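Changelog-adjacent note: as of this version, every example in the card shows the full chain rather than a window. The one below runs 460 residues end to end.
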Amino acid sequence: MNGPSLGPENPFRRPWIGTRTLGGFGSGEAKQVTEGRRLFTTFGFLVAKQGATAVIGLAYWAVVTHLFSAHDVGLAAAAASTALLLAAFGALGVPLLLLAEIEPVEPSERRVIFTTGLAIAGFVVLILSIGTMALSPFLGKSLTLIGDDSVTAALFVVGSVATLAGLTLDNLAIGLHRGAAQLWRGSLSSILKLACVGVLVLASTRTSAGLIFAWALALVISFMVCVPMLDLAPTRSGEGALSHRVGLVRRFGRLSLQHHVLNLSIGAASFIVPLTATLLITPQQVAYFSAAYLLSATMLIIPYLLALSLFAERSGDPGLLHRHVRRTLPVGIALSLGIVLVVEIAAPYALRLFGPAYAANGTTALRILILVGPAYVIKDHYVSILRARGRLTHAAKIMAIGTSAEVAGSALGGVVWGLTGICVGWAIAATCEALFLLPVVLTTFRRVPSLPIDTGSEPD
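Full-length structure tokens:
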């Protein structure tokens, strides 16, 4: 099978640098210090952003679950999870392209690629969100209730497009190693959402429409405020600007779609499983599931960010890949296992943050969902390894099979056992998938690959 082009027209091809020194350092030790500092600087900004948004996000959930009914909270959660799914499918690989491929691009072209990609993907998400509202009577009780009110439906459409914009900005910031931009965007969005909820409570407007309004408004404002922090060069204007954008689409379109397929193959389960809950269980149960899912995702974010930092470090050096995996894999596994142990014990106490009803109805779900963590450490490392070796197509095929199994497992469990079944089915399928992927990850961990890693043709 063939991967991205090997020819000179590929702007992202990087030669295998073997044992050459990096950045003028004359020793292997200095080189490894530089590599590790760069990797963990990226990781540090990701942790800071997720830590800030997690703390504020938990405060937001603690407020809304105490002051709003579980029915309204469930509808707002359904809107956000559906919007995230639409953004993932409509992104066309643009956010991941910016994360993984933007650094080698000339600074003068970065803004053009960002705005062009965002415009195309934003239009697709706009159409998908309008279509979702049009079909909402056939998409479960939660989406039916959202679509029944024209104002709430319009807010959902705005929030869906803004979700895509926020994801795109965050990934570009990571790709350019300007982590402060994504840190501020995530933090500001969470603060604004919490502030809007405070205004709603003071105005005695405790409805699902109000929560969806707060969510959409916070996303829009945080994006507009933080775009200048990317410090992108001005775009070309005047005659030839449109043709230049068309040329960029032709130049990067195929690579973007390859990333899109890979991204959907990797992460579709984390979007579709919450949507499965929206379709199969009541709004109140969606609220309990969302609280458990939020806590499990928050607890497991650090192991995931280690793998994402590895993904962002594009390299043609097999030795560098080996060294990075040896840095991130043991830490990721140890952290995830420790988190599992803590959550199994503390689950009911943690869920009391949202109220007694959430602790009573969500504890089992949280204890099961957290078991997905160690499996995803293996899955995320597998994808980062194959991407660094230029095997995007192969990775996408394997991930598509695994993700399909996860979604099928959660859906089957939901049909048979409801809320608990969704969680059990997902955990079992993810664990089986990780066992299948583990040999490749361990091979890279144990030894340096014998062949150069390149973004060229994949072996048959």
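Structural remarks: The CA atoms of residues 303 and 332 lie 5 Å apart.
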